[in-house]
Each structure stands twice: as structure tokens, then as C-alpha cells.
Amino acid sequence: MAAQSIDADSAWQLILAAVNRESVTLPLPGTSQPALTLAGEARWSLHLPATADAQSLFSLFLPLCRPLPNGRSHQVIGQLGQSLDGRIATVTGASKFINGDDGITHLHRLRAVSDAVIVGAGTACEDNPRLTVRRASGPNPVRVVIDPHRRVPDGHHLFTDGQAPTLRLVAGEDTGEHRARLPETGVLELPCLGPEGSRAEPAHIIAILEGLGLRRLFVEGGGLTVSSFMNAGLLNRLHVMVAPMIIGSGRPAFALPEIENLAEAWRPEAQCISLGSDMLFDLDLDRV
Ligand SMILES: NC(=O)c1ccc[n+]([C@@H]2O[C@H](COP(=O)([O-])OP(=O)(O)OC[C@H]3O[C@@H](n4cnc5c(N)ncnc54)[C@H](OP(=O)(O)O)[C@@H]3O)[C@@H](O)[C@H]2O)c1
User: Fold this and answer.
1) Ligand 1 interacting residues, C-beta cut-off 6 A
2) What is the pTM of this model?
């Protein structure tokens, strides 16, 4: 019998099977042959040789899938897809597409291992995204749009396509009344962001989502929203996908407070992986 090995497709099936699993040995999909053992404290080992692509998938995604470490009630991942000069869109907001095919597949995989995907109103307005998982297998996350002024058009996909539930977080005091009503599809509007014109604390947004049972959170964009979670110290990991493209002007990826000394800059532990079309920086913001 030919020796079996783990390719990227099998690795992805194993990763989906690993979500929230603690100590278990998982077989190679379609066989009974042990392939992946998950042990405590985020350790894992392979029983079969794996292709380079499969190894990359394991090292990027297994840390995101494992049971949340002791005492942590949620995990927040951010992503930004940027040009070499750190832009996520042109001045007019055009961002389709900065990243190549492999980068977009990576984005869909991040959605598939998350309970909820969060975008700001700017992204929802300009991109009219669906935020579903289409380029990989896996479940659609709950879609969350932070839309204090209700400026995202009602006809946009998030509110009309029925592919997954959408939470629209708008200005207003949180009465807690709606919490039990996360629909299977359709839109739930939650007034919870405080008075119109004020900025909601990202920690408050996380608490609202946690109250609905959403604990693995993926902040997909745009730059203002990702930066606000990062600046509040609430991102555990950040995936920055860099495309070999120079735009030369446009919307910045990061909007953080000014610093004078480089010692104050973020310099997290990082792994750098070529996705093919894009270079991915996987930043561990718990270890800055
Ligand atoms: N390349 C990529 O990876 C990527 C990913 C996503 C989006 N994009 C691009 O990025 C651009 C949009 O990004 P952006 O940075 O301008 O905007 P954004 O982050 O999508 O949205 C920002 C807006 O969301 C609302 N918001 C976010 N956090 C809030 C909070 N804590 N409290 C209250 N309101 C909050 C506010 O809406 P109000 O303004 O109504 O108060 C805020 O102005 C688009 O051009 C899109 O195409 C690129």
C-alpha cells in the first residue's frame, strides 16, 4: 500500500474537525489512519508526513481552533489585506482586490473557524460584502456590522441574502432584552453602542457578542475598526496579508496613536508564511 501523507485539503478537514477539541487523535479524512493528535496547552503532533502547504495550514490555524486557554472567555483575531505601502483601499474606497486568490481563500478560512465576523460600517457600505465561507469548506459565521448611524443600505447582501444571521449594532442603550434572540438567519438590530455620535468601547462590543455565545471573533476590517480593537489591547492575533502591489495613496491599514520612539512601536512575535499570491504575517499580539 502506498504511504499516505497529508495534503492541504486533508489538513483543512482536520483543522475543521479540531475546532474546540481538547485531547484527541483525528484520522486522515476518509480513512481510519491516525493523522493528527491534539494534546493539552495547544500542543499537536502529526502521525504522517505532510506537504509544506499542509504544515503551513496547521501552524496558522490550529492555534485559532483550540479550546480557549484557562480563564479566557473569548479570542479575537484581526486581519488586514494591504499593499506593500500599507494601504487597504484607494482614496475612493476601492479594495477589490488588493490580495490575490490565495489571500482571499485564507480570508474565507479565517471566517470558517470563527463564531462571528465583524466589520465596520465603512466596509459594509463600500464593499457590500457577504462575509460567508465560499472558497473553503466550513460553516458561515454570524455576521456583525458596527453601524451606529444605520448608514449601511438596507438592500446590502448582509441584510438580504439570508445566508447567515446578521447582527447590526447601532446607537442606543443596551437593555439586554434582545440577547436571547440570535436568529438562525435574518437580521437582528441591537441598540447597544451608547448615544449616537459617541464611540463604543470594543470591550463592550465583545461583551455583547459573548452574551450571545459568540466567543471566537474575527475582526475582518476595515482599518479603523481593526485598529480600534488593537489599540484597546483586545486583539490576540493579527493576520496581515501583504500583496506585491504599491498603491501610493489611499486608506491606511493602521490608525494608531502617534509615537515618538520606536521602542513604543508594536513588535510582536511573528511567523511569516508565503500564501502564494501574498505574504502573510501572523502576529501573536499576546506576545508583544
Ligand atoms: N484590504 C482589506 O483587508 C480591507 C478589509 C476591509 C475593508 N477594506 C476597505 O476599507 C475601507 C473601509 O475601512 P475604514 O477603515 O474606512 O472603515 P471601517 O473600519 O470599515 O468602518 C469604520 C466605521 O465603523 C463604525 N465603527 C467601527 N467601530 C466602531 C466603534 N467602536 N464605535 C462606533 N462605531 C464604530 C463607525 O461608523 P460611523 O462612521 O457610521 O460612525 C466607523 O467610522 C473600505 O474602502 C474597504 O473597501 C479593506
Assistant:
1) 80-81, 88-89, 93, 95, 98, 119-123, 126-127, 146, 148-149, 151, 193, 199-200, 202, 220-225, 228, 251
2) 0.97
